[in-house]
Please model this.
Amino acid sequence: MTFTIRPLDPARDAGLLHGWVTHPKAAFWMMRDARPEDVERVYTGIAADEHHDAFLGLHEGEPVFLMERYDPAHRELAGLYAARPGDVGMHFLVAPAETPVHGFTRAVITAVMRHLFEDPATRRVVVEPDVRNTAVHALNAAVGFVPEGEIETPQKTALLSFCTRERFERAVGA
Model:
């Protein structure tokens, strides 16, 4: 499966994202009650933040996933773990599908990780999914993430996990 990734345009993409982040399958995204203007405001803030970026992933020209990249030493995980040079934080959300395609979400996370590791400065990808999100823990493990342990964030109890370039390449046979 081939994906392209482009920067998210908050004004243009907020309506699309609203449907994704408020969908019941996006419960762990913590935006279920967001209004379209709330989504636009959040992503306008991300676009203006030097330590946080948002992207849309497209398959055959159609938007199918959201990816966020952030500096964990300055956002989300700041002060919650010992950040290292080359750490990159990541979130991803696959658009809800009427007809799920087997292996699609795994293909998405693989594409996200490849995109992040295209930057030679990226040494480790850091994630902090909710401890209850067992589906994403399995996906993370499939691409080489190793859990470090639980941490308390202001929003949740999270499973802090790391993936080095070498572990990613071994996991996906790159």
About this structure: The CA atoms of residues 17 and 136 lie 20 Å apart.
